[in-house]
């Protein structure tokens, strides 16, 4: 979790800033959480999941993305968290 201090989401309009310390989950097609991660200092996160379709959710603001993971492939996911969160 983020420590005390200014929230990095408070950047100026249109600025994209990394958001460290946010919990992120992967839910399979049945709605079961199959992986968890916490975003790192640069805002990135990684999870190892089997091939399939997943909903990736940032847990503080509930920003979601749907992705299909293929066998032996890295699947990039970008979650954009609004400044208003």
Short description:
By secondary structure, the chain is mostly beta strands. It has strands at 23-27, 33-38, 52-58, 63-69. The two termini are 15 Å apart.
Task: Please outline the helices and strands.
Blueprint: E1 23-27, E2 33-38, E3 52-58, E4 63-69
Antiparallel strand pairs: 1-2, 1-3, 3-4
Please tell me about this protein's structure:
The protein has 85 residues and is mainly β. The chain has a domain at 1-6 and 21-72: Sandwich (Immunoglobulin-like), CATH 2.60.40.10. 0% of the residues lie in helices and 29% in strands. The protein has strands at 23-27, 33-38, 52-58, 63-69. Strands 2-1-3-4 form a four-stranded antiparallel beta sheet, with no helix packed on it. Strand 3 and strand 4 (63-69) form a beta hairpin. It is globular, with a radius of gyration of 13 Å. Mean pLDDT is 84; it is low at 1-6.
């Amino acid at each position: 979790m983020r420590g005390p201090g200014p929230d990095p989401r408070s950047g100026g309009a249109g600025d994209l800033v990394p958001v460290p310390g946010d919990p992120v989950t992967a839910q399979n097609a049945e709605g079961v959480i199959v992986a968890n991660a916490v975003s790192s200092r640069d805002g990135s996160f990684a999870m190892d999941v089997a091939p399939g379709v997943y909903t990736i959710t940032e847990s503080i603001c509930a920003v979601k993305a749907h992705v299909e993971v293929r066998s032996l492939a890295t699947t990039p996911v970008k979650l954009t968290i609004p400044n208003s969160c």
